[in-house]
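PT: before anyone asks, these are the final sequences, not the draft ones from last week. 405 residues across everything. Please model them as a single complex and drop the result in this thread when it's through.
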Amino acid sequence: MAMTPRWQTMIRLLGVQAAWTYERMSGIGVGHAAAPLLRDLYRDATPEARRGAVARSAEYFNCHPYLAGVAVGAVVRAEQDRVPGPTITRLRTALSGPLGSLGDQLVWTGEVPALMGLTLAALPLAGWWAVLIAPVVHNLLRLRLTLWGLDLGLREGLAVGAALQRSWLPPAAVQLQQLAAFAVGLAIPVVLMWVLRDGPTRGVTVTVALSVIGALLMMAPATRTRVTGLRLGLGLLVLALLVIGGS
Amino acid sequence: MSLVLCRVDDRLVHGQVVIGWGRPLGATEVILVDDAVAESAWEQDLYRMATPAGLEVRFATTAAAVAELPAWQGGSDRTILLTGDLATMAALRDAHPGIVTRINLGGIHHRSGRDELLRYLYLDEAEVALVRRLAADGAEILAQDLPTTRAVGPDALL
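LR: through. Structure below.
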């Protein structure tokens, strides 16, 4: 049985960053994902019209990868509605910021830390099963979000911005961030008790001390632009490995 | 307060602007100067969605921005002035060289005819000539996508 263009696009959206470059960022991945739907849409059109649509959809673009389906769907629907090419290019530009910002809030600062916090908090009860279950839950949510976004874009076209604003997504981003704060707050004492169950070791003491220093540097006005979460995290990882390796 | 950043970025309102620069600079508003967006309600809806609470985004045509720049400079907000292309920023600079003194090239991306100067900066010949002319006129031009990355001046850039 042949896969429908919608599902071909859905599968391709899972690898939307596979051809990420500084030159076009996710543009090539988005164009590749849109191609099955555009081929179907332009099957009776001239090759020039079809090529034009595919080329437009592969131009420079960047957004959160899990929400790229919203842009793909909206652009395909706009092509279907015969919206002029320059307006479609502006739609892609305008979608880039909100889809990046909403995706970051929903996933990177919402769902992921919430799931990590709940997983860590569940460790003493569920053991390593919690760690195995977490990526399964994350990827199921990601699949559902991607399909929802694609369908929303296909349904709304140029009106996708207003539809996004009315949707469950903006309030869910806020709620997930609140859940993340709760879950991480719950996880910290639970994990500390679990790690310190045999008393404090040198490695744990040094790691906690460095975390506190790093957190203070991230907040201090003189250093907060240079000490980012990523740099601090990588630095702590290296130091922790050195300390644990040397102890 | 005043303009805290004059930025050229063809992605317009997005995370690097509102979070990357907006937070360390304590910005309270972003004014996007773009003739097409100033007339487009659906685009404005989308850009408003990209801004966090506490940061207002406003839209202006180039003509309106030329008229309003002195008031923005003397206002109580900490404003990021944002354009999607170099020509619009040059028009604002030419109209008010005493206000638009420093121009941040934050993101001008790939397009046919443009050459790569930095990962986030691609310019065609006309844009290179415009950067040179602005620098010769006394504007301080720095390419820098985020406050945490290295700023590159025109001498090293071109």
